[in-house]
């Protein structure tokens, strides 16, 4: 088997492992998430409850994605930083130099892909060509894991391309694979790195039961407010009501006030005040 075929076979195996890792991570995280409780200071409305669930789930998916990305970046950093040679000899190769004394020196040299050296970058890549055949979306480069994240599944959506890929990988035509159906969420040229960041999740369904939440809360009382723009009839009746109330208040206040004033005037007339210099 040629180097390109071995490299491609390793990529496909690695892709299956990425899918399995993503599925395990999602299932484990959901198990932990479903054990948690939602605690609020007061009962939420249907809209608030839906927003809370949506925000929490989005944060959960983001945390899972970032955790996988950080782990994968750390793994790639270790491989590249320590110049670890790939088992496919795709990033470093051995060079044997013979001296005049008959001794041989074996050294390693980086592999170049175009103008990119694997000694400087681990993401160097070129289009995949096997037996003079080009396969859309597939590439070859320094490390199968890094190149796989740059590739896409465009060839797997095309039955003709998939048949050619199967023929160069296997010597027989039995168990011919069938092209995958078009995704409803991702496009054909979406990179596998983007699929990995999205946890390979095709569709996300968020279902919640507000009635169950409300029953568990056992709310003893319920109050609500609403805002309504006043119409002309409401304004007129309000003004009339204010004038009517003001009339009643004046009736209650003015009559006693007048009596008090008359009493004070009569008292002053009966008891005039004499100035001190006349005494």
Give a quick rundown of the structure:
This protein has 279 residues and is mainly α. The chain is built from seven helices and six strands. A two-stranded antiparallel ribbon has the order 1-2. A two-stranded antiparallel sheet has the order 3-4. It has a two-stranded antiparallel ribbon with strand order 5-6.
Overview of this protein structure:
The protein is mainly alpha-helical and 279 residues long. Helix content is 50%, strand content 12%. The strands form 3 sheets. It has a two-stranded antiparallel ribbon. It has a two-stranded antiparallel ribbon with strand order 3-4. Strands 5-6 form a two-stranded antiparallel ribbon. The longest helix has 39 residues, at 232-270.
Shape: elongated
What's the mean pLDDT score?
82
Strand order of the largest sheet: 1-2
Question: What percent of residues adopt helix (DSSP H or I)?
Answer: 40-55%
In total, the number of strands is 6
Q: What gyration radius follows from the Cα positions, in whole Å?
A: 41 Å
Q: Which percent range describes the beta-strand content?
A: 5-15%
Q: What is the helix/strand order?
A: HHEEEEEEHHHHH
Alpha carbon gap, first and last residue: 140 Å
Structural class: mainly alpha
Total of helices: 7
Strand count, sense and closure of the main sheet? 2 strands, antiparallel
Oligomer: single chain
Which parts are unreliable, with pLDDT below 50 for 5 consecutive residues or more? none
């Amino acid at each position: 088997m040629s180097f390109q075929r071995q490299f491609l076979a390793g990529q496909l195996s690695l892709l299956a492992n990425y899918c399995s890792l993503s599925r395990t991570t999602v299932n484990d995280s959901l198990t932990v998430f479903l054990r948690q409780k939602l605690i609020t200071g007061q009962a939420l409305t249907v809209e608030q409850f839906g927003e809370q669930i949506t925000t929490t789930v989005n944060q959960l998916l983001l945390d899972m994605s970032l955790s996988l990305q950080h782990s994968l970046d750390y793994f790639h950093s270790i491989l590249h930083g320590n110049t670890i040679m790939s088992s496919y000899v795709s990033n470093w190769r051995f060079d044997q130099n013979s001296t005049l004394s008959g001794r041989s020196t074996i050294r390693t040299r980086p592999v170049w892909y175009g103008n990119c050296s694997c000694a400087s970058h681990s993401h160097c890549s070129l289009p995949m060509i096997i037996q003079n055949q080009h396969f859309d979306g597939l590439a070859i480069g320094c490390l199968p894991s890094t190149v796989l994240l740059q590739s896409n599944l465009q060839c797997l959506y095309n039955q003709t391309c998939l048949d050619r890929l199967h023929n160069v990988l296997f010597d027989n035509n039995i168990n011919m694979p069938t092209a995958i159906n078009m995704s409803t969420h991702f496009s054909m040229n979406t990179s596998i790195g983007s699929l990995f960041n999205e946890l390979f999740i095709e569709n996300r369904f968020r279902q919640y039961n507000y009635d169950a939440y409300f029953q568990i809360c056992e709310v003893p009382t319920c109050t609500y407010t609403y805002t309504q723009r006043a119409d002309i009839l409401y304004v007129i009746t309000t003004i009339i009501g204010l004038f009517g109330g003001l009339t009643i208040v004046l009736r209650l206040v003015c009559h006693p006030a007048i009596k008090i004033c008359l009493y004070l005037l009569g008292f002053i007339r009966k008891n005039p005040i004499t100035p001190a210099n006349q005494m």
